[in-house]
Amino acid sequence: MPNSASKGFIDKTCVSVSQSSRFFELAQHLANYQGDDVLAPPAINTAAVAQMRALNAKSASAPNHRLDNSSKNLLLKNTHSPNAAKFDALPDACVLVAITDEAMPRVLLTRRASNLTSHAGEVSFVGGKRDLGDVSSWAVALREACEEVALRAADVQLLGFLPMQISKKGLLVRPVVASINPAAVQYLSPNADEIDKLFWLELDYLCQNAPSEQVFRHQQANQTMALHTPAWAVDLDGDDAPEVVWGLTGRILANLLEIGFGVRYDWYYRLQNCE
């Protein structure tokens, strides 16, 4: 994205949530979060952070600098601690963590279309990359939600922001947390070019049910490895295969549960040779 795209862009806009809102406490937890604003995925070794900072030494002096590709890829491959990354950076992409405003709140998730070139068939939040005309992370999240599932901005209230996560392609992804009018559930419709299915998971279910270890095939160089990692495998209707929530989406959900509700789940990636 050209540097001009960063001019005037606001990552975290002001949030105003009424004390009478069922999500007031969640909004307070998000606002009071004092940890790192960029969370690297669980990985391998902390020495990469110093190398990454050296790579970005020149751009670091500029306000709201963005990580260059070599820096982000180095961090993605080598960072061990999820709290090791501390940068003044803008997001490359934003996702909307949409929670229904009802007695048993639910989180909106989607299964990406099977014909996509990236993350085909995987579970994700609605969201996408920042465009030149976008003025804020909030605007990116709203635009993508409208494009992907026809969610109207009038039915959404901003609650706050989670720390950015680094995707496996090295993108900085800002999760934007919002409540939505439960009546909106009736009109949401997935864009068939991008989404095969939209579905909902109750927050209470996520708080009460820890993710279990799942094994995925992972291609590394010319070798197929077994990737062991936590995931929620949710059987929604008993007919289709379970929806598996893992990877970046799982990490964002786990971060929401920890910061917003005090429920902590360890997240890890462990590679083993396939037998």
Short description:
Helix content is 23%, strand content 28%.
How would you describe the overall organization of this protein?
This protein is α+β, with helices and mostly antiparallel strands and 275 residues long. The protein has one domain (3-273): Alpha-Beta Complex (Nucleoside Triphosphate Pyrophosphohydrolase), CATH 3.90.79.10. It is 23% helix and 28% strand. The protein has helices spanning 24-32, 47-55, 69-78, 137-149, 203-208, 247-261, and strands at residues 38-39, 93-100, 106-112, 123-124, 126-129, 156-161, 164-166, 172-180, 195-202, 212-220, 223-234, 243-245, 270-273. The strands form three sheets. Strands 1, 2, 5, 6, 7 and 8 form a six-stranded mixed sheet that branches. Strands 10, 11, 12 and 13 form a four-stranded antiparallel sheet that branches. A three-stranded antiparallel sheet has the order 4-3-9. A hairpin with a 2-residue loop joins strand 10 and strand 11 (223-234). Helix 2 (47-55) runs antiparallel to helix 3. The N and C termini lie far apart (42 Å). This is Putative NUDIX hydrolase. Residues 90-223 form the Nudix hydrolase domain. Its cofactor is Mg(2+); Mn(2+). Pfam families: NUDIX. InterPro entries: CoAse, NUDIX_hydrolase-like_dom_sf, NUDIX_hydrolase_dom.
Helix content: 10-25%
Tell me the CATH architecture. Alpha-Beta Complex
Q: What would the average pLDDT be, to the nearest integer? A: 84
Tally of DSSP β-strands: 13
**What's the tally of helices?**
6
Biggest sheet layout: 6 strands, mixed
CATH-defined superfamily: Nucleoside Triphosphate Pyrophosphohydrolase
